[in-house]
Design a protein that fits this description.
Layout lengths: L3 E10 L8 E9 L3 E5 L6 H9 L6 E6 L3 E4 L12 H7 L8 H14 L15 H14 L4 E5 L7 H18 L2 E5 L11 E6 L2 E6 L1 H11 L3
Parallel strand pairs: 3-7, 3-8, 5-6, 6-7
Antiparallel strand pairs: 1-2, 1-4, 8-9
Length: 223
C-alpha cells in the first residue's frame, strides 16, 4: 500500500472569494519520492507550495504532510539571515532545545550532505547562487525535515548550478528518504524526478510519470 508524503484534498485558497487561486485542488506525492510541479504563470504553483508549507492558511480542504517540512525559496537571499554558512544552518535549530554539541553535529552533518562542510565558516555574501540554495536546503536537513518544498530553486542559477542542484536534491531524496516537491518551468528538469503534476487554473490537470507530462507540454512550449 502506497504511503503518501504529501496528500491534498479539495483544497481552496484565494485572497478574494470571487477569484479563488486554488479550486478544490487534489494531489498526492508518494513518500520518499521526488516530484515536480509545473504550470503557467498564475496557475497557482507558488501559492500551493506556500499553503503546503503553512505560510498561507487555506479556506477549506485538507492538507496532510509528514512533518517537519522544509521550504526553499526561489531567491535564497530571502531566507538566509545569518552572516556565515554554519550560523545560518544553526539558526533554524534554536527552538529545538538542543545542546551545543548536538547543534554542531546537526549543522556539520547537514552541510556534509550538501557538500558544503568545507565552507562552514564562509560568509554568506561570498557564496554563489547555487551554494546559497544548498545552504537553504542544509537548513531544512538540519531540522530533520521529512518533506522538502522547493519553489523554482534553479530559476536564478546558471546551467551548471541548475544541474548540480537538481541532481543534489535527487540524491538527498534517495539517500535520506525525503519526500520532495519542486516547482519548475524547465522541462529538462523532469529527467530527474519520479513523477510530475501539472497545475492549470488552480486545479491538477494531470499527474503521473514525467515523460507523459513532457509529451503534453512540449508542443505548447515550442519543444
Amino acid at each position: 500500500m502506497t504511503q503518501w508524503g504529501i496528500e491534498v484534498q479539495d483544497l481552496c485558497f484565494g485572497w478574494d472569494e470571487r477569484q479563488p487561486i486554488l479550486k478544490r485542488c487534489a494531489l498526492k506525492v508518494p513518500e520518499g519520492e521526488f516530484w515536480m510541479l509545473l504550470g503557467t504563470n498564475g496557475s497557482g504553483k507558488s501559492t500551493l507550495l506556500r499553503v503546503l508549507a503553512g505560510l498561507l492558511e487555506h479556506q477549506s480542504g485538507q492538507v496532510q504532510l509528514k512533518a517537519p517540512v522544509g521550504f526553499v525559496f526561489q531567491n535564497p537571499d530571502h531566507q538566509l539571515v545569518m552572516p556565515t554558512v554554519g550560523a545560518d544552518v544553526a539558526f533554524g535549530l534554536v527552538e529545538e532545545n538542543l545542546s551545543y554539541p548536538q547543534i554542531r553535529d546537526r549543522v556539520e552533518e547537514a552541510l556534509d550532505a550538501v557538500n558544503l562542510l568545507h565552507l562552514i565558516r564562509r560568509p554568506i555574501y561570498a557564496l554563489s547562487g547555487g551554494q546559497k540554495q544548498r545552504v537553504a536546503i542544509a537548513g531544512a536537513i538540519a531540522r530533520h525535515c521529512n518533506v522538502l518544498l522547493l519553489d523554482e530553486p534553479t530559476s536564478l542559477l546558471d546551467p551548471e548550478s541548475q544541474f548540480d542542484l537538481v541532481t543534489g536534491v535527487k540524491a538527498l531524496v534517495q539517500k535520506r528518504g525525503l519526500t520532495a516537491l519542486w516547482v519548475t518551468h524547465r522541462l529538462e528538469e523532469l529527467t530527474y524526478c519520479n513523477g510530475a503534476i501539472l497545475l492549470e487554473q488552480g486545479q491538477v490537470a494531470q499527474s503521473g510519470p514525467p515523460d507523459l507530462l513532457k509529451q503534453r507540454l512540449q508542443p505548447s512550449l515550442g519543444g
